[in-house]
Sequence to fold (818 residues):
Amino acid sequence: MEGIEPMDLLRSNLSRVRLPEPTNRIYKHECCVSFDTPKSEGGLFIDMNSFLAFGKDYVDWNYRKTGNPVYLHIKQTKKIVPEDGPLKKPILLAIGVEGGFDNNEPEYDESYSIVVLPNYVTLPFPSVELPEKVRLGVDAILLNEGVEKKEQLAAWTADKKQVSAYAMNLQQIDNGVIVPPSGWKCAKCDKKDNLWLNLTDGMILCGRRNWDGSGGNNHAIERYKETGYPLAIKLGTITADLEAADVFSYPEDDSVEDPLLAQHLQFFGIDFTSLQKTEMTTAERELDQNINFDWNRIQESGLEVEPIFGPGYTGLVNLGNSCYLAATMQVVFSTQSFCAQYYMNQNLKMAFDMAPADPTVDLNMQLTKLAHGLLSGKYSVPVSEKDGSAAPKADAKQEGIPPRMFKSVIAASHPEFSTMRQQDALEFFLHFLDQVERSNSGKPELHPSRSFKFGVEERILCTSGKVAYNRRLDYILSLNIPLHEATNKEELEVSQRMKAEKFSEGNKVEEIVRPRVPLEACLASFSAPEQIPDFYSTALKAKTTAIKTAGLTSFPDYLVLHMRKFVMEAGWVPKKLDVYIDVPDVIDISHMCSKGLQPGEELLPEGVPEGEVQASYLVADENIVSQLVSMGFNHHHCQKAAVNTLNAGVEEAMNWLLSHMDDPDIDAPISIGAQGSEAPIDQSKVDTLIAFGFHEELARKALKASGGDIEKATDWIFNNPDASTSSDMDTSTSDNTTPTTVDMGLPDGEGSEFPKPLHGYRLFGIVSHIGTSTQCGHYVAHILKDGRWVIFNDNKVGASIDPPKDMGYLYFFERIKG
Fold:
């Protein structure tokens, strides 16, 4: 608008300026449709009506879509600071906060201005001449922390300790024990460090032994197992600041807070005000382990990795324990299906135009943003090129892009992924594919997650000689690791003998030999016959032992193998199998093709005779009933709850009970037709389960057993294979060559009709994990790109020298075409 003074132009658009309210989400650190920031060449433009942020190349899109013309422009310019100061040692397990890890990030000068579109008319800020509404709005934006940092704070802090359930009523035994202020030693060995005082009996014992032989001798935890005395405090961590003391709860398996710690210590004559700190707390030890973490096992033994830059080689910033997300998404966007959907066939403008008013909450927009960030090469440049300095090629690094908005969207429906805690990469991968499929539910031909989906057929052979077939869909092939198939058994036996000798001598084990299991053995275990005890045979009208085998009815474009390295030991104690998997570059899984119903095979009769159904389900599980009764519920009501949820479990029965407490017939005797009197199942939920590949009868039964909850219904189906064998199988015809709706439209979805070509797959991606469980440690991806292996370790991207093919947690294979 030529001829109008800038200030008059601004005043004429004041109706489009809003003052932020406490509930408004203000974005000021990152563009909503790209990874531009105030540090970018064009700075960042914040819409003073919607409070969304846009880079210079994208702000005009927002103006044309919304008509909002007034923007706060923020530009950050790097300060020149001498680099001769000493590095500070972290004292807090945190990133980017006082006392935490120093990110060594440069400092920036920040400048502001008011910009009015479409002609980018600029007015300086601060200025007393600006309208008060604009000044107040800008001040509020600048004072606000920004939703990016509120949702994904770049910090990693140990979780706040919870008050122990055993602290307030802790039993203390008056056995005359008085603990001296120093000179402690384990009561069962000569250990003088890593000592724990049991707060019940006052016994001082050593802590746990580490995997390499270091640490204690397990005497403290063995004492707990003998006595059940729950709380212990680490000697050497007790000072006048009792909150910093390390109290551990064995039954809760965590560091805890003891509000009565002073009283509990005084019981054993401990004057905590006079003690000096001599031992690291668990959190400090965690910090120390992270500083000295042995990354070499997955970073190729510390070899120098040559950095790589350019399209497809962009790293992802670790937002705080987000390596599970980074490793998974790097592999996902190395597939043709996801690249095509969110990069080649859809640009940022298309995604923005289709997005709702707030593009930050739109999965399609944020996936497209992430794809363009990773694949365009725009952000994959050496830091030295961005700031104008020169750096040796070997030392060059990139900043990477922070997937904050994507993480926020994908985690919205999953409370665990919303936290800053480490997560299971497999669980995230499955959740991600599920969300992509849901977002494309109206256009199944478009969603790229189908390239990972395949059909599984289970054949169940009854002792009557008759069979049943059960079909389902899956995204991953989860494989047991048969340790008895290790190829280095002699070497393992020698190692075990040497390990036992060194332990008995109190020496550390210098080298650990791990079992080596061929991948072929793991694949064979998937198809191997498996016994099903207590299988109800509709032919025998009785329970028997059946034999189950499995095969594939379709072969996906991308096959994901999950190695079950985490198993449950006795007492539900999780353990990670320390094992190597010998994985070839190419595998052939033709032998896993399901044969379907064969000539001469006779199917088990469909369904269960009415009398058998009643006998089977109208008897309440006494374990469920007794647990509910112990909670204070009426015995008859508990029986009715168990019957009406088909004995699915305590939680399901309780949910039914709580929702039917006021039923007029709650006290009526349990009748034969009790199950038939239930309220009708929501058909939309039935349709959802059918869309997952389950048959309608099974879907209704599962929803009924789980109180109408889809997620619990899915769990019920997988936890009750006997139920699925009579409902989720293709028994409508003796000719099983016709594809069912379960795998219709998938690659090779024709099942046994397919003419058995070479089903070859080439390894192209590995997600490896280091740590004792999937909820801790670190994830790294190795991907075959342009004929060479590349390591993606958060924001570090480089040429791989020795990819850890035998250490994978998830293996990604691409089907060999032709």
In short: The two ends are 61 Å apart (CA to CA).
